[in-house]
Amino acid sequence: MFAATSVSSGVIVLVGAVFLACAVEMVEALTIVLAVGHTRGWRSALEGTVVALVALAALVAVFGPALVHVPLSVLRLVVGGILLIFGMQWLRKAILRSSGLKAKHDEDAIYQETVAELEAVSNRPDRDRIAFVMAFKGVFLEGLEVVITVLTLGTSAHRLGLAVVTAGVAIVLVGIVGAIVAKQLSSVPENAMKMGVGILLVSYGTFWVGEGLKVTWPGNDGALALFVGLYAVISWLLITLIRPSRSIIESEVSA
Amino acid sequence: MNQKQSPLVVRLLKSFGMFWWDFLVGDTPELFAAVLVIIGAVAVARIVFQENALAIVLLPLLAILALTVSIRRAQRAARK
Q1: Which of A17, A188, A222, B54 is a plausible cystine mate for B45, CB 3.0–4.6 Å?
Q2: Tens digit of pLDDT for each residue in B39-78?
Q3: What ipTM was reported for this prediction?
Q4: Nearest Cβ partner for B63 among A102, A202, A242
């Protein structure tokens, strides 16, 4: 019974991390594609998107099977290190945004900036190279982060299939919701999602670095759930500690 | 004078290197350095001294310390 519980907590953390990370990246990519499509026409925007998706699929096809041949302890150590760095970067950003020290990611502002940039280029030929390049870059760069997350988490946990399916579900779901709400992607609670992803990636990073260095975790995979709880509490404490107090804000306003 | 363009392979390798640099180091080099230190410290505890319990405590503790230092650094920068 304990084995079943610990396996399921590992799976839950894997699915949660992949789903949230893919959803956040998809929101960012979709914002750019919607801005390009609305401003310059859908043909080139969709062509850029499709070519970027094909390029990403080719990367997965090339590097996915290659990763399986890397010794597991080396793979887990390297992947754990990457996830620790990547996760701490996300968590740091989310904590700074939650505490008000950094401006929140504003999808509306990104949308408006992209539209303004595209409208500055007046001529709009049938095949729009600028629209194609912008859509391609947006989807490829955000997609590359999805590919890295899926490949590293999936191969280390020996559940690449599950990670790929979860990423697919997240991308399709955000795609459908994005198409329905169109320009209202700013209503997506992106910072909360980023905080969740950061906590999950740091938890996985801690776990895999330990596994790569032959650390025996108490409760095996169940330790992942403990890390999630620990990093969630630490994040909350850090937000509380660095958030400017009401008295400081009031004194700055009155000054 | 026209500068000679680098060969495609060189440009691709450069872009690949730049992507990983931005991805792993970017504007938080302290986190990159911290993870190298964490791996080194835990490797010494687990492999050299055979101390599993110490490694279990050290790994999350150093990660929390690194995150706290990086956030304090950002907080100081924001106040300037």
Answers
A1: B54
A2: 999 999 999 999 999 999 999 999 999 999 999 999 888 7
A3: 0.88
A4: A202
Amino acid A44 reads: S
State how far the Cα of B80 lies from the Cα of B75, in Å rounded to an integer: 9
The alpha-carbon gap from A10 to the nearest alpha carbon of chain B, in Å, equals 18
Contact: B60, A215; criterion CB under 8 Å: no
pTM of this prediction?
Answer: 0.74
Please give the structure tokens belonging to residue A62: 């090339």
* Residues of A in Cβ contact (< 8 Å) with B71: 92, 95-96, 238, 242
DSSP calls for chain B: -PPPPPPHHHHHHHHHHHHHHHHHTTT-HHHHHHHHHHHHHHHIIIIIS--HHHHHHHHHHHHHHHHHHHHHHHHHHHH-
Residues of B in contact with A85 (CB under 8 A): 24, 31-32, 35
Residue type, A69: H
Q: Is A112 helix (H, G, I), strand (E, B) or coil?
A: helix
* Domain ranges (residues) in chain B: 26-79
Tokens coding B13: 């390798």
Residues A75-121 have pLDDT tens digits of: 889 988 998 998 999 899 999 988 887 776 666 677 777 777 766 66
Q: A213 and B46: CB-CB below 8 Å?
A: yes
Query: Which of A25, A78, A84, A230 is the best substitution to test chain B (most B C-beta atoms within 10 A)?
Result: A84
